[in-house]
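Weekend entry, working from home. Most of the wet-lab plans are on hold until the incubator is repaired, so I used the time to fold the two sequences that have been sitting in the queue since the last round of cloning. Logging both here for the record. First:
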Amino acid sequence: MRAILLAGGLSLILTIIGTRVAIRVFAAKGYGQLIRDDGPTSHHTKRGTPTMGGLVIVLATLISYFTAKLITGSQPSASAYLLLFLFVGLGFVGFLDDFIKIYKQRNLGLRSKAKFIGQTAVAVVFGFLVLWDHSPFVDPDGLTPASRAISFTRDIEKFKLPIVLMILFIVLLIAGASNAVNLTDGLDGLAAGSSMMVFGAYTLMNIWQNNQSCGGARVALDVSTKASCYDVRDPLDLAVVAAAITGACFGFLWYNASPAQIFMGDTGSLALGGAVAGMAVLTRTELLLAVLGGLFVLQTMSVILQVGYFKLSKGKRLFRMAPLHHHFELLGWEEITVVIRFWLIGAVCVAGGLGIFYAEWVVGG
């Protein structure tokens, strides 16, 4: 528990200090945001605002996690290493995208194909390793970081897939979540605040899973007892990572809230989206993520519906603009109003996800 508090607190402090430094450095070097010409005209005033702030989120998370482990004298787990690999890997893909935008002074960074290849490569490696049943990824009880069974609040054994199909499912989940957070990162503070709530929820869920862990006695447990415990590897260490990311998002939001002094860019949004998906895989809550991250799902669906309706209707639009937050801006809502109301939607989704998670344990127990 000390490691969780240390990681969260240290990450918060590092991000508040580091983001201030990043704003000065990036502004001095001219690392400013480019704005879409076809976007809301109110956003044109944001042109030149420092971007790539996601670097601070990633670095603060890494430093705070390993510092907390060092201070408490505990060893990092395989699950945490794999989650951080996914976090940093997708953050690197986003960094390349951001850097190309800045270097070439265009709103298009990596080509869509190149970005997809980068995301897929990182996700495939992650998916393979979390299911690998060899040392060092298997604990003394024979538990791997992830399971071949698709899960809701715990593994659904009848949905157990061959390893190739499970890896494909994990890749799709990671791609979907990372792009969903990327789409949500269109207004000041929207993605950072929403992500903070989701990772805060996973911190609580990981602590609960640790307290209700099946542990080393899982083999001897009867069916009724197994229904009330969790076969999750390293839940307490995953809580440390989740707390570190929560603190980083909180600290970054101090400068990213409207009017934003810095943007996280694809560096931050892809990293956070990947970590959300990775957390769902490692905590055996893949399908529950659709509830916890309901705001991200809503944003993604608005884009899918917009594109689909545009093609079917031969040029008509379902929304004034997608993702959905831009639709409300064009209806005349102030940006800060849209952000706060979308935060409220995100909070309801997170509360609903936590409620389902606990209710399942009560019923199952």
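Second, folded right after the first finished:
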Amino acid sequence: MTVGEIAGLIAAIAFAILVVFLVRVLIRLAKTIEKAEQTVNEANTTIEVVTKDVDLLSRQVEGLLVKSNELLNDINGKVATIDPLFTAVADLSESVSELNSSSRNIVTKVGGIGKTTAKATVAGKVGGTAMKFFKHKKTTTDTTGGK
């Protein structure tokens, strides 16, 4: 073998080794690309599932908000209905407080004499206040249609 043939043989072997390494690199690259495609496909599937779940969740939240608004409106209506009751109770408690104050003044003025008369006066005032309250309540219910 001549030097040219040996050089050609070395070049052919080097070229063959280069081709083998390039083939191995290309196979690894193909596997990496395949894994990347699989990852992208899984990501797309996940995005589709999440999108469907979010759509469903948003519909359910919207329904819940509608029901909450209806419930709140119902509660507001019922609170408005019982508001006069609280006003009447506040007025009655104020009248009772005034009555207590008046009865204390009467008892201190009367002292030991006429305790029975003072008690009768207090009872009369309590009865009169109660009658006014119930009379006011009856006229209020009669004007609202018996409710």
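Plan for Monday: verify the second prediction. The chain is about 95% helix and 0% strand.
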